[in-house]
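Usage

Read records sequentially. Each one opens with the input sequence:
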Amino acid sequence: MIFKKSILNNNLLLFACTLFFVVVILYFEIRVLNLEGTNDKLVSEVAIVRKQILVNNEASIPSPIIGGGAGGGALVEVPNVNLRDRKDLVVIYNRVPKTGSTSFINVAYDLCRLNSYHVLHINVTGNMHVLSLANQARFAFNVSKWDSIKPALYHGHIAYVDFDKFGVNLKPVWINLIRRPLDRLVSYYYFLRYGDDFRPYLVRRKHGDKVTFDECVEKKQPDCHPDNMWLQVPFFCGHSALCWEPGNKWALEEAKRNLISHYLLVGVTEEMEEFIRLLEVTLPSFFQGASKHYLSSKKSHLRRTVQKADPSPSTIKKIQDSKVWQMEQELYDFALAQFHFMRKRTLGLSASNKTSQFTTERSQQFMYEKIRPK
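and closes with the structure output:
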């Protein structure tokens, strides 16, 4: 009897020990599973952040960092995303006539094969700058849906087109150049009479007319009327009827709004090299190598008007007294101030110093922290 009771006690002890070990093993397995789940969640969060980051120039900008800070956990360096992955990128350059656009766009043509994108010229009947409403819609849908041609840079002498108006998903990147309005008018005046060195064989509309710009202003002829300067404002204003009304104040304000809200970058003809350098930093998938190519391939002086005389001080005074010149000049000054701001923030250049090599862009970093939930 005593022997049987001893065996029973031993069995109970063995069962208790076995149960204890099973519970311990289950406890540690649950802990391991929880740790693995936490690790998977962290990896997932890092992956999500990686997908959301698009850094403009992987060659010159340090990698961003996530995490860190107060309660943010360990720092995690996130690799830069190569902009060449943006196969759907569309850039539109609605080039204003006589602003140096030929010099710039030829750089884009020279680089398109090397940087793997397409360049397309928008050729409008009669060189008209305003598209019909139907053609605006077709243009917006064509650019949005023509996937086989992306990434692409479109260029042409057309006014700004509001893609949102037509309900398309694509948001193109707009760029442009602007020039001192009187310089642009004088250049265009002589261009119509003498042509340029880009296509010297073409006979221009005013070929043979020897009247100088000064004489034209003195005689109050239509070719030099200040209203002819009204072009840069409407190009940025767009397709509203008021945009094309010379001297319209609303058009000027709309042009400024569009320049700030819808254009990635607007440069000035007088500082073309810095404009190209900014694009090279900001859109390397299109403009990598553009600065060196622009300076070394003689593209910086394409399409010079063959013969051009500077206007006299009295002529300049008469033009500057006009409302149109004052408003066009206001837009130019507005664009110039914005361009200098972007140049200083991106290239580290001030108006008096043009030798910096992207110092601000190289030294600036950004990071994400306090990511929740953990």
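Summary fields computed downstream for this record:
- The CA atoms of residues 84 and 285 lie 5 Å apart.
- The mean pLDDT is 81.
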